[in-house]
Amino acid sequence: MSQTATQPAPKTKASYHWWQDGIIYQIYPRSFQDSNDDGVGDLKGVLQRLDYLKWLGVKAIWLSPIYPSPMADFGYDISDYENIWPQFGTLAEFDELLQQIHAAGMKLILDLVPNHSSDEHPWFIQSRSSRNNPKRDWYIWKDAKPDGTPPNNWLSVFGGSAWEWDEKTQQYYYHAFLVKQPDLNWRNPQVEEAMLNVMRFWLDRGVDGFRVDAMWHMIKDEQWRDNPRNPNYEEHMATYEQQIPAYSTDQPEMHGIAARMRKLLDEYDERLMIAEIYLPVHRLIAYYGLQEKEAHLPFNFMLISLPWDPLLISAAIDEYEAALPAEAWPNWVMGNHDQPRITSRIGVQQAKVAAILLLTLRGTPTLYYGDEIGMRDVPIPEEEVQDPQGLNMPGKNLSRDPERTPMQWDHSDNAGFSKNKPWLRLDRTFHRRNVQVQKQNDFSSLALYKSLIDLRQKEPSLMTGSYRPVYSDNQLIAYLRQTKGQAGFLIVLNLSHRPCYFTPTTIRFKGTIVIDTYPEQLNTTVQDKIALSGDEGLVVKLDECQLHS
Ligand code: GLC
Questions:
Q1: Confidence at 12, pLDDT banded by 50, 70, 90
Q2: How many helices (H) and strands (E) does the chain have?
Q3: Which of 418, 453, 488 is the last residue of a domain?
Q4: Is the beta carbon of 73 within 6 A of some atom in ligand 1?
Q5: Angstrom distance (rounded) from CA 405 to CA 413
Q6: CB neighbours of 381 closer than 8 A, spacing ≥ 6?
Q7: Ligand 1 atom with least separation from CA of 116
Q8: What tens digit of pLDDT does each residue of 170-213 get?
Q9: What pLDDT score was predicted for residue 11?
Q10: Is 267 assigned a catalytic role?
């Protein structure tokens, strides 16, 4: 039996939110554009490059933390939640940037880091000053065991024990990350109120939402039980992975807090909550909210975490699609400031195939700055390593500096990023891999991203249409994206370097190739089968499509 594809009733364009049909672009502010030539990027620099982002076609900019900080973890250690780090600019410059972003029809998302502050935040300075300071309970203080060792076996994500002894007050404090990042005590309602006030501060200024840092860490087991050993630990892994963080993360009480944060956002118009959460799919989707609404977009890191294997990836896409509650909107992330870049994981050619995957799956894509020009992880000599994760666990190649190097704009000195020596060295290949040269080359990564974004944003099938898997094997993934009344698009991706054949038995189709990692193929008509080159990914605009069941 054969049938024409039927689709669920589509929403009208107007009923989608900006964060559903738009694309998010992550900027690591230190590395995007330096406007005052001190070697470190800044807010004015972002403003200078707004035209590029508008041209690229992204809807929202997410800025990694821009607040005052001792920079032990490059801004994820905040000493004042309601101001701007002087090297990044001023509040007035922030307001100007926000206004210009809005004038360009775009949105701005800030990083919110509620799990921990800097040890130099006045809250912690008070908290550690004495056992009976009113802020003592704002952080997590515990007595030593009788033998003087920490209260339990929990490990810090950045290496070593998660407990730090405080000589003065004779107790340990808990830090999931650095010693200089003490965890706030979210069981204390005053902490919650203070952080909701921080959110209000920025929402009142007009920001369009938050990416909530380390949300799955925020509440810990009330009994402080030891974490179990991880039977799958291997030497090359971060020491943190010696344990399964069963009691230190993803506790049920977190859902109530997330719901209250969401409630606050919903008092405003169209604001967005993204949550950084590294968890298996069924626990991840709980952060959309089962009883009450929680995050709009719990970040989906599957494309970062999984091996580049078509069978694993296609199965994971289906598992995610199937697990999503009816009202939950999917999202996809291919890179960020904590993970090796996609080019360095799977190679420059496959990274183009990955771009098609990211920008044609159902749901909001988040792009990491520089991925659109195929930036690679830069080898940082050992003596130049700055990232604490790399410094604390030497010999494991865990530094995140390589994926945080300055944006490569052009072939002038320092790639147009700064007139001064950049805080992290640039990729040696920046003379030939930069925005300027790629804009002029139809075969570049940037040209591919630009045409994918243009197509996605003008085609409702790709922007908000349904997803239907068609075929996968040990080389290929193929799927349909369709909206009512349109034949839609067929996406066929070869995740291997060898040629392969797409000869599906479940659909018959006819259409034209409109996107291809090998642009020589563009405008070719295809029918029922396609022979693909190694590393080829393509998008077919369908004239006809029949599914067989
Ligand atoms: C998040 C951030 C990471 C940071 C950590 C501690 O995982 O993405 O960069 O180091 O939280 O704040």
A1: low
A2: 16, 20
A3: 453
A4: yes
A5: 15
A6: none
A7: 12
A8: 999 999 999 999 999 999 999 999 999 999 999 999 999 999 99
A9: 54
A10: yes
Return the pLDDT at 3.
40
Residue 85 identity: W
Q: How remote is the CA of residue 214 from the centroid of ligand 1, in Å?
A: 7
Structure tokens at 344: 């360095």
Whether residue 214 has its Cβ less than 6 Å from ligand 1: yes
Does the Cβ of 78 fall within 6 Å of ligand 1? Answer: no
Ligand 1, closest atom to CA 176? 6
453, 477, 503 - which closes a domain: 453
Contact between 469 and 442 (Cβ < 8 Å): no
Give residue-wise pLDDT tens across range 15-54. 899 999 999 999 999 999 999 999 999 999 999 999 999 9
The distance between the two most distant Cα atoms of the chain, rounded to a whole number of Å, is 78
- Token pair of 465, please? 């249409």
CATH code for position 519: 2.60.40.1180
Which range (11-15, 73-77, 272-276, 414-418) has the least confidence?
Answer: 11-15
Whether residue 458 lies inside any domain: the answer is no
Mutation probe of ligand 1 site: the residue of 177, 278, 393 with most atoms within 8 A of C-beta: 177
Closest CA to 249 of 383, 156, 340, 327: 156
CA–CA gap between residue 473 and residue 441 (Å, rounded):
33
Q: The tokens of 302 are what?
A: 């599957």
Tens-digit pLDDT profile for residues 274-326: 999 999 999 999 999 988 999 999 999 999 999 999 999 999 999 999 999 98
Q: What CATH number should be reported for the domain holding residue 291?
A: 3.20.20.80
Regarding whether 381 and 508 lie in a shared domain, the answer is no
CA distance 446 to 39: 25
Q: Are 194 and 207 in contact (CB under 8 A)?
A: no
pLDDT level of residue 2 (50, 70, 90 thresholds): very low
Q: Do 340 and 231 belong to one domain?
A: yes
Q: CA-to-CA distance for 523 and 491, rounded, in angstroms?
A: 15
CA 521 vs. chain centroid, Å, equals: 32
Task: Assign 34 to helix, strand or coil.
Answer: coil
Closest Cα to residue 253, out of 297, 226, 223, 280? 223
**Whole-number Å distance between alpha carbons of 204 and 208:** 10
Task: Judge whether 384 counts as a catalytic residue.
Answer: no
Is the confidence at residue 6, as pLDDT, over 80? Answer: no
Q: E strands along 344-447, which residues? A: 364-368
What predicted TM-score, i.e. pTM, was given to this entire model?
0.97
- Strands (DSSP E) contained in 2-103 are 2-4, 24-27, 60-63
**Rounded to 5 degrees, what are φ and ψ at 330?**
-70, 165
483: nearest Cα among 70, 46, 2, 21: 21
Query: Could you give the angle at which helices 189-205 and 91-103 cross, rounded to 10 degrees?
Result: 60
pLDDT of residue 548: 85
